[in-house]
Write a structure and sequence with these properties.
The protein has 269 residues and is α/β, with parallel strands linked by helices. The chain is 48% helix and 13% strand. The chain has 10 helices and 5 strands.
Length: 269
C-alpha cells in the first residue's frame, strides 16, 4: 500500500490576477506504508538535529523562509537572520532528499486558467485551480500504482471548502469508462484531509511544494532578490531530480478536458 501526501501552494481560489502568486501547485510525495514508522522516526530525529528549539513545531516553509514569529510565541525565526534560516531550510531539503522521495506535481498557471474560463465560459464560470490540479495528480498517482501493482490512498492538507468537490471528483473518476485513460482503478477510499501540524509527511510535502511553486513563479516573472532567488533555484534543482514524470501529457489529455465539461457543476464556483 502506498500513500500520496500532498500539499497546495499559491492558493488564492479564483483570484487569477494575484500578482504575488501567479502559480498554483499541488505536489506530494509517495510513501510505502511498510516504511511509514521508520520514515516518521527518522524525520523526527533529523528535525531535532536541524532545529532543536522547534523540533516539535510544524515545518511551514514560508514561516522559516520569511523569518516569521508566531503570534502565540511558539517560534521566532526572526532571530536567525536570512542566512540562518536558509541554512535550516537547506538542511531540511537535504534530509528530505536523502529519503529518495518520489514526488508528483501539477502546476496551474492562473493566467492560462483565466483565459480558458474566458474562452470556454465567457467568465460566467470560474474554476478553482485546486480542482483542476487534483484530478491530474490523482491520475498521475494511479498511473504509479498501476506500475507497482498496488493500491493507494491520498492524504491532503486540510482544505475545508473543497472537501465535497474532491470527493465528487474522485468518485466520478472511478466511474469513468474502462475504455478510457481517465478511469481511476487503484486509489481506494476518499481523499483524507489532515491537519499538517500532525503529519511530518504533509510538512515535507509543503517543503517540496514551496520550492516548486516559487521556482515556477520566477518563470512567470515573480522574481525575488538575488539572494532569495539563488536559494530557491538551488533547492528546486535538488527536488526536481525526484519528480516522477508521468506518461500522460496534460496538454494532450483531452479526456480530462471532457471530464471538466461533463461535471462542470462540481468544478464551477
Amino acid at each position: 500500500m502506498y500513500i500520496l501526501y500532498a500539499d497546495d501552494s499559491g492558493n488564492t481560489g479564483t483570484d487569477y490576477e494575484n500578482k504575488d502568486q501567479p502559480i498554483f501547485s499541488l505536489a506530494g510525495w509517495i510513501i510505502n506504508t511498510d516504511n511509514w514508522t521508520e520514515l516518521n522516526d527518522f524525520i523526527n530525529e533529523k528535525k531535532k538535529e536541524i532545529m532543536p528549539e522547534y523540533f516539535d513545531v510544524e515545518i511551514h516553509t514560508t514561516d522559516i523562509f520569511n523569518g516569521k514569529k508566531d503570534k502565540n510565541g511558539t517560534f521566532d525565526f526572526r532571530k536567525n537572520g536570512l542566512q540562518g534560516n536558509f541554512e535550516i531550510l537547506d538542511k531540511l531539503v537535504d534530509m528530505a532528499i536523502s529519503l529518495n522521495p518520489k514526488v508528483l506535481v501539477f502546476i496551474v498557471r492562473k493566467e492560462k486558467l483565466k483565459e480558458y474560463c474566458r474562452k470556454k465560459y465567457d467568465m460566467k464560470v470560474k474554476i478553482d485551480p485546486y480542482l483542476i490540479a487534483f484530478p491530474y495528480l490523482s491520475k498521475f498517482f494511479d498511473e504509479f500504482l498501476s506500475k507497482e501493482n498496488a493500491k493507494g490512498l491520498i492524504f491532503l492538507d486540510e482544505q475545508e471548502k473543497v472537501v465535497d468537490n474532491i470527493d465528487n471528483i474522485l468518485f466520478n473518476l472511478r466511474l469513468s469508462d474502462n475504455s478510457t485513460d481517465l478511469k481511476i482503478n487503484n486509489i481506494v477510499e476518499r481523499a483524507v484531509f489532515l491537519n499538517s501540524f500532525k503529519s511530518n509527511f504533509i510538512q515535507i510535502a509543503d517543503l517540496f511544494n514551496f520550492y516548486i511553486n516559487r521556482y515556477k513563479s520566477i518563470e512567470e516573472g515573480r522574481v525575488p532578490t538575488e539572494e532569495k532567488r539563488n536559494h530557491i533555484e538551488k533547492n528546486y534543482h535538488k527536488i526536481q531530480k525526484c519528480i516522477v514524470e508521468s506518461e500522460i501529457d496534460p496538454f494532450k489529455f483531452n479526456e480530462m478536458l471532457n471530464f471538466f465539461d461533463d461535471y462542470i457543476h462540481i468544478f464551477a464556483e
